[in-house]
Design goal:
Layout lengths: L2 H16 L5 H14 L2 E6 L7 H20 L5 E5 L9 H18 L2 E5 L3 H14 L7 E6 L5 H10 L3 E5 L14 H16 L5 E4 L3 H13 L7 E6 L4 H9 L4 E7 L3 H9 L3 H9 L5
Parallel strand pairs: 1-8, 2-3, 3-4, 4-5, 5-6, 6-7, 7-8
Helix pairs in contact: 3-4, 6-7, 7-8
Length: about 290
Amino acid sequence: MNLVTILSILLQPLSKRFIAGTTLSEALKVVDDLSKKGFLTTLDHLSAEATKKNESLNATEHYMVMLKALEERNLEKNVSLKLSRIGLLVDKELCLKNLERIVEKADTTGGFLCVDTEGLKNTDDTLDLVKRIKTSRRMPIGIVLRAVFKRTADDIVNLLNKEITIRLCKGFCRKELKSAYKRNADIKKEFLADAKRLLTSNSYHGISTHDEDLINELISFTKKHNIDKNGFEFQMFLGIRPSLHNRLLKEGFRVRIYIPFGRLWLPYILRRMRGGRESSWFFIKNLFRK
């Protein structure tokens, strides 16, 4: 029995809290259940990076099927995607064509696609492709930015000028990079500064964090500056601090839950657990936290 098999056996019971099953039908049920409670949702299929053209095409088709299934069930048609899954590492122009197909499907179904920048190595290409897709204000595409990277403040200004919706998270960086903040205090400081910039931009954006201190400070900021609760949303992971999800929803805030599903759930769990000391401890202690 190899290590992967052992980890799968050990973590599988716990994974049910954080993963919406291995099939699309299982994930749709979770989307439906959360929607009925008043939550917003975004659905993501956990798959490997595409290293061949046919793999990128298969992944693209899967997202087309996801959007169609959400439309047929009258559920929110919001999905999340990493471009490495649809060909960014194979050929940039191939990835662009695949991305165009998904965005067009989202557009015709009244949906939305949020693209993850994944890390510094893919950030420039991801930003470029999203900007090329966003040819008009109505094109339903947004992007994830991470406060851990020192470039993010400038990226925010550039994206705001192009009216591109942003999902801001703290992020983590396992390498000692000069282009990334290392101390958690510095990351939190930048996250707050970036979040406040988005909240005062007069555009709709997502603030992704489970840090209650940061959330409370941002709520105080919105009250002080009379920022409408419907003008932004908090975003969180499935299974992490559900009591906090419910508290924010009860207080009238818009709360979007990230819902991952798929057979490749183990790499997702392990990635969360090894995301730096604070991130690892945060994930582990929330295995049993309500």
